[in-house]
User: Fold this.
Amino acid sequence: MRRILVAGVGNVFLGDDGFGCAVAQQLAGEPFPPGVHVEDYGIRGVHLAYTLLEGYETLVLVDAASRRETPGTVFVLEPDFAHAETLERGESGFMLDAHGMDPEMVIGILRDLGGSVPRVRIVGCEPLDVTERMGLSAPVARAVGRAALLVKQIVADECARDVSPTPTSLQPEQEVLK
Assistant:
């Protein structure tokens, strides 16, 4: 059984930054195979790092992220944190911001705690408005369903990795939905 953590992240008080939280909330009631856990982490980066200590093979982060695309564009990234330089404790942000949610900071904290870095897939959405307000803009709200379907496909592909070593159907930095 493959252990997969789907983590919705972001700040619901900053408009479209709450995208990952909205996707996690939509997925929370969906059936997933054993070993798959879905949770809305919001801005709780330290909590996410401690959860990763429980031993997950894959982390699917869902977040709003600007890549200068059309607002509402959904994309998949696969950063290589496993081979990145280890961050120093001060660089990881552990001492500076216990509520930060930068993925590199979370991985830095995980390493600081002695944890293993899982395979990381990021399902992102181009935001329109990240000003202080609650609620997603119209294009980002429409992207929630597309992102949820994409997360389900990634989970299915990751679960299939246990059965056979065939490549996943999603290629890093190539899956873009508008």
User: Anything to note?
Assistant: The first strand starts at residue 4 and ends at 9. The chain has five helices and six strands. Residues 69 and 126 are 6 Å apart (CA to CA). Strands lie at 4-9, 36-42, 58-64, 74-77, 119-125, 176-177.
